[in-house]
Amino acid sequence: MYNAMELMICVASRLLEDGATVGVGTGAPCAAAMLAQKTHAPGLLVAFEAGGLAPMLPAMPISVGDSRTTYRALMATSMCDIMEACQRGMMDYAFLGGAQIDAYGNLNSTVIGDYKKPRVRFPGSGGANDFASFCWRTLIITQHDRRRFVEEVDFLTTPGFLTGPGAREAAGLPSGGGPYRVITDLAVMSFDEDTCRMQVESLHPGMTFEQVQENTGFELGQVADVKETVPPTEEELNILRDEVDPDGLIIGRS
Amino acid sequence: MYNAMELMICVASRLLEDGATVGVGTGAPCAAAMLAQKTHAPGLLVAFEAGGLAPMLPAMPISVGDSRTTYRALMATSMCDIMEACQRGMMDYAFLGGAQIDAYGNLNSTVIGDYKKPRVRFPGSGGANDFASFCWRTLIITQHDRRRFVEEVDFLTTPGFLTGPGAREAAGLPSGGGPYRVITDLAVMSFDEDTCRMQVESLHPGMTFEQVQENTGFELGQVADVKETVPPTEEELNILRDEVDPDGLIIGRS
Amino acid sequence: MTSSENTGRGPLFTDPDPDVARAFFREKKGALTDKLMSVSDAVARFVHDGDYVASGGFGGNRIATALLHEVVRQERTNLGFAGHTTTHDFQILAAGTRTGKQIFSRLDAAYILGLEARGLSAQARRLMESGEVEVCEWTNYALACRFRAAATGVPFVPVRSMLGTDTFRESAAKEIECPFTGKSLMAVPALYPDVALIHVHESDLFGNCRIRGITVADWDLSRASKHVIVSAERIVSTDEIRSDPNATAIPAFCVDAVCHVPYGSYPGNMAGEYFSDEVHLKAWLDAERDVEAYRAFLDKYLYGVDCFESYLEICGGEERLAELRRLENN
Amino acid sequence: MTSSENTGRGPLFTDPDPDVARAFFREKKGALTDKLMSVSDAVARFVHDGDYVASGGFGGNRIATALLHEVVRQERTNLGFAGHTTTHDFQILAAGTRTGKQIFSRLDAAYILGLEARGLSAQARRLMESGEVEVCEWTNYALACRFRAAATGVPFVPVRSMLGTDTFRESAAKEIECPFTGKSLMAVPALYPDVALIHVHESDLFGNCRIRGITVADWDLSRASKHVIVSAERIVSTDEIRSDPNATAIPAFCVDAVCHVPYGSYPGNMAGEYFSDEVHLKAWLDAERDVEAYRAFLDKYLYGVDCFESYLEICGGEERLAELRRLENN
User: Fold this and answer.
1) Which residue of chain A has the CA closest to D155?
2) Cis bond leading into D267, ω under 30°?
3) What whole-number distance in Å separates Cα of residue D21 and Cα of residue D25?
4) Do C155 and D181 touch (CB under 8 A)?
5) pLDDT class of B253 with cuts at 50, 70, 90
6) Which run of H or of E encompasses D131?
7) Which of A125, C52, D8, D146 could lock C80 by a disulfide, CB 3.0 to 4.6 Å apart?
8) Residue A99: its pLDDT value, please?
9) Considering B6, B17, B49, B84, which one is annotated as catalytic?
10) D184 contact residues in B (CB cutoff 8 A)
């Protein structure tokens, strides 16, 4: 047995191929990268926006700038150095955490309500806007519900495909980037090549498309052959529980 | 007794006050800075464009990037870091070597003749244009003759006052900078505040204004009370010969 | 969508003019003078009401906690503040003064309120939702580049993020056209803080500093700021600095004050020295939820403390600090 | 005066478009693969006729002499070349091939021909006065900023030098107006070299490199270049690199080839290792004055040499190298 977070992390980790480079935040993205390194992608190069490059993570970092992010790292450098590796096109994946998201993968982590008089203030972009602007493929991992999956984000903090095909390039963003996969507790979504709108790629075991649509505030597409998400393997779960997150900080305490 | 180079170096060194910052090239400028440190300005902070900051120079550097420029230095850094200290206004003096020079202190170190078909090709700007653009006061040390002191430089490599009052600012250069003193084997020149043209500030012992004018390809001004340059003191000469340049690389072998 | 606009509508709190900054830096002399002073003297001399302040490190890592506490205790108000991933540093200033005044009223925000994996600060949220702080939005990289531009001595640098987003709309950036490629770029204006508070591993009396681990944006921040107060785990000799010129991260001519503060980043993490005190940070977060409990917490840990050494003492003193050293270096 | 013009008339040899460079960098994979190879293999694989080449270090300091010699011996032609204070490195390439062909035909020049205090190179002068090399003028800082722009991933950065001068007129820079201050600034276009030749103190098999002493522009150059060949005094283990992450200057993902070349900067100066061989450098300068003597010199020291180790041998071998070590470390 496994819980939703374990499933999400295992599914996410498989998207990171060996030899790729990925910029990650703390929490589930970092856990997924660590799991990938310990399974199929030992040569996955993990970068942290505050300056840590390719550490041998001894434990889950609490901050993307804490000293675990440079433990036996290949380099301890600056925020600009990491971000500029991304900006010049050397970072394959950005791996971002949960937020309000729309059909084009645009993210809000700034405010709920009107910007000038927000009902709720959130942290803001941090490095998310930079990562999603610069890295070739943005991966998003988040809970799936109608409060998060909305027709229009209250504030467009971090660019997905903006208004659709060609909009990123028209805005001046580096060409060829954009969101790649959204991994939730219900399904894995990709983006339609022609419309840039979110579509179901695979349904988690036991889920129907209708259930996913019901929890989504905009109209979802689906690929021609929606598959069932391959559940976590025994090996993945063991490594995740024993080596990646033994204290259950992210996957929950057992 | 002393030779012309010794005089020039001693006179130049006195212009560098304690606590000031100066960017220097190899040769006479570096010797002048070293002499200043060993006499009246122990706290003079010397920077080299390639990245050396405040070394305890064990000997005259051969290159502004050789390891002597970081011998027991406060910092070994990059060209950009040094140049940007200058660009943001933290370097008081730039100290440049000889070149073709006009009445406004504009320097040529690129070509003699037409640029496209030069009679003689020289090294070009190096860091001279940057130093003279960024540092508050440019000091120039050079031989004095009509081939060097010309009505119009063949190529304006490095900015003096360009065409005169306000021209630097109009061109976009940082305001308030420009050439400060020109030290030659004949005299010390400054620049008229109103016209920005070169004027004799002091004549070296035995020199007349007419002799200096005769060796100058443009009309020279002179300050109201032209003085005689104070010759090198015994102490200055001893330190220069024994500690700064014991091998006589710059002041000549004795 | 905002891609048709070309100027963010956020407020620009500081002057990006490099000639104004140059005129200031020209008068900044005395690289090689003794700058060692107490934390209270340093803050008294170099942090003034209305100043624009920036905090080094990364929110909860290598932050100048002692200096930040002192700013609160000396009741500075009406500050501007720069926050690229500002977490516990933000939380400290968000506490306000003992008499209930706000410390800062202008904020360049890239990441605020949160303490990353630890959760959100209730007090920071109350402050930010009060409408009492004027905010301008940025990204972490854009804000770092604003320091970079200032350190470089130019009024802006171009970046390729923020484009097409509301983050841009609420910023003070400007969209420009690249003269070489015709592409849209985001010009982010130079940010010259009045004063930076930076904690380092080692400094000499003059302010030549060494940093271990990530430098975040402090290379640029130390150069961009009109005044720099450094607190250091250790004071070393200038001979020691000169023995390894590659290790110097901040040169003395950028620095105005040097304070000797062992454990000066506590409860933050100091690379190679001590790990963050997650127990204390959690207590701080928890206390913020209840206004009364929070006031008592602040009285005990911040307002009522005479100096940083006393704070360390009531947080567990040497025993706790030794534990955090073990945690960092195991 | 040129302040009324707004574009330099010099040639732009390389494409400053960051999206073109991004498409290239996207395919550059395998940070953590073994890249150790011979100097001849590295040059054969990564330096092609017509490529734009940049040389690390500073002219006669920490230059990749072994790689430069190999470029000459493998008779590369029609190269572009970037020279910010290019001195002995320039002199090596200016020699031309054994069969009398020119190595480079396009040159971004900031400081050329001279060897600083040592005097001017007669051969470099002949070449540059022949009219056979297309030249674009820059300053040292402007050229460093062109690497900075490329490393940053933006098409240009603004600087405040070159303004109002003929150096600008003969450059490929563009004058722009600052959107914040209205001031004139010089936009210098990103320079993405096809290949950079960089000598370092230590590298692991993957290309994680350490540099001691000044870094000049190599931090940016290594990141800006599409391919990077590193020669290293010592090959160290990745464990050793990981033991001090602060010491890494170039990360492996920028590097394509690693060559183990002790004394690889000879006759240049290598900080902390060996001083420059002023006797040999003077001999080279002297030989250039007479065309016949120069040909014999090149046959002996460059064309007729099978590898860099042989060059070291005929320059005095271990005895001379030990002397240069003493000179550096006394």
Assistant:
1) A88
2) yes
3) 6
4) yes
5) low
6) none
7) C52
8) 78
9) B49
10) 171-172
User: Angle at CA D61, nearest 5°, toward D57 and D62?
Assistant: 55
- Phi–psi pair at D176, nearest 5 degrees: -130, 165
Min mean pLDDT across A33-37, A55-59, B172-176, D77-81 is at A55-59
CA gyration radius for chain A?
17
Q: Which residues contact A24 (CB under 8 A, 6 or more apart)?
A: A30, A32, A33, A46, A47, A48, A64, A95
What ipTM goes with this model? Answer: 0.97
| Alpha carbon distance C322, B232 (integer Å) | 61
Q: CB-based contacts of B148: which residues, under 8 Å, 6+ apart?
A: B98, B99, B100, B101, B142
Pair of tokens at residue A204: 């988690």
Buried b (16+ CB within 10 A) or exposed e, C260-295: bbbbbbbbbbbbbbbbbbbebbeebbebbeeeeebe
Q: Which residue has the tokens 């950079």?
A: D196
Are C69 and C280 contacting, i.e. CB atoms less than 8 angstroms apart? no
Q: How far apart are CA C251 and CA B91, in angstroms?
A: 13
For residue A79, the chain D residue with the least C-alpha distance is D152
The token duo for C292 is 């009364």
pTM > 0.95: yes
Q: Closest Cα to residue D29, out of A177, A91, A42, A53?
A: A91
Separation CA B61–CA B131 (nearest Å) = 19
Residue type, position B103, single letter: A
Rounded to whole angstroms, the Cα distance separating B228 from B218 reads 22
D188 to C23, C223, D80, D156: CA distances (angstroms): 25, 22, 18, 5
- Could you tell me the end-to-end alpha-carbon distance of chain A, in angstroms, rounded to an integer? 12
Kindly list the catalytic residues of A.
49
| Residue A90 burial class via C-beta count within 10 angstroms: exposed 0-12, middle 13-18, buried 19 and up | buried
Rg for chain C (alpha carbons), in Å? Answer: 19
Q: In the beta sheet, which residues pair with residue C36? A: C258
Both tokens of A231, joined, read 């559940």
Q: Which residues contact D98 (CB under 8 A, 6 or more apart)?
A: D73, D75, D298, D303
Q: How far away is chain B from the Cα of C188, in angstroms, using its nearest Cα?
A: 17
Strand partners, D136: D108
DSSP string spanning D25-63? HHH---TTS--B--HHHHHHHH--TT-EEEE-SSSSBS-
Whether the CA torsion D82, D87, D89, D93 is positive or negative: it is positive
What tokens does C177 get?
Answer: 């056209």
Nearest CA in chain B to C31: B19
Q: What is the DSSP string of C153-194?
A: TSSEEEESSSTTSHHHHTSS-EEEE-TTT--EEEEEE----S
Q: What angle do CA C303, C306, C311 make, to 5 degrees?
A: 80
Whole-angstrom Cα distance, residue B174 to residue B168?
7
CB of D277 within 8 A of CB of D265?
no
> How long is chain D?
330
Among A26-30, D27-31, D170-174, the range of highest mean pLDDT: D170-174
| pLDDT of amino acid B136 | 98
The C-alpha of C209 sits at a distance from chain D's nearest C-alpha, in angstroms, of: 14
- How much is the pLDDT for C31? 87
Strands C52-55 and C195-203: parallel
- What is the distance, to the nearest Å, from the Cα of residue D111 to the centroid of all Cα atoms in its chain? 12
Q: How far apart are CA A113 and CA A121, in angstroms?
A: 9
Cβ–Cβ below 8 Å for B121 and D129: yes
In the three-class reduction of DSSP (H, G, I as helix; E, B as strand; rest coil), residue A78 is classed as strand
Pair B131, B90: CB distance under 8 Å: no
CA A15, CA A32: separation in Å to the nearest integer? 9
Torsion angle of alpha carbons C81, C84, C89, C92, nearest 10°? 50
